[in-house]
Write a structure and sequence with these properties.
165 residues, 1 helix, 18 strands
Length: 165
């Protein structure tokens, strides 16, 4: 056991020995119960929910999100999918979230979808100007940099405006 994990284990043991410390003030009730006016009462999860791992609260089922004291079904629009949390949605690749819908990403010439799949970026040798990509004009004695979206002068040359001298 490393020093960090040993320290964490000791801290958890200390917390466990203090009444109410593990779950906060007034929540020293056994699992499946919660504190109501200083007394323990059975905990009931609303429809489409279950008691959480602590046994002192509840979480909505997958496909539902918490709204006040209940769970509502996640409304997934066309081209949408349930996100990794299971309690919200995101758009499929090639679409972007706009308000409560998914709209198709319009990819201009000399561009492609970005890594997220919800936007776009210019291809190597092109730079974004508004909603289009323009070819980068590389001057004499220069080359594109590692990103492919800027240029730099060869060693021994310096940049003056849009030239290398």
């Amino acid at each position: 056991m490393t020093g960090t994990s040993r320290g964490l284990a000791i801290a958890l043991l200390i917390l466990a020995s203090i009444p109410g410390a593990a779950w906060g003030e007034g929540s020293s009730c056994p699992q499946g119960q919660h504190s109501v006016d200083g007394a323990c009462a059975p905990l009931a999860a609303p429809p489409h929910a279950r008691i959480d791992a602590t046994g002192h609260g509840w979480v909505c089922d997958l496909g539902y999100s918490r709204h006040g004291k209940g769970c509502s079904k996640v409304a997934i629009p066309g081209h949408g999918i349930l996100d990794a949390s299971g309690h919200d949605w995101t758009c499929q690749r090639g679409y972007t979230r706009t308000d409560d819908q998914c709209t198709q990403v319009v990819v201009p010439a000399n561009a492609s979808l970005d890594a997220s799949g919800h936007g776009w970026g210019c291809n190597w040798g092109y730079v974004r100007h508004g909603q289009s990509c323009e070819k980068i004009q590389v001057p004499d004695h220069a080359e594109l940099d590692y990103s492919g979206h800027h240029w730099h002068c060869f060693p021994g040359y310096r940049q003056v405006g849009n030239r290398c001298i």
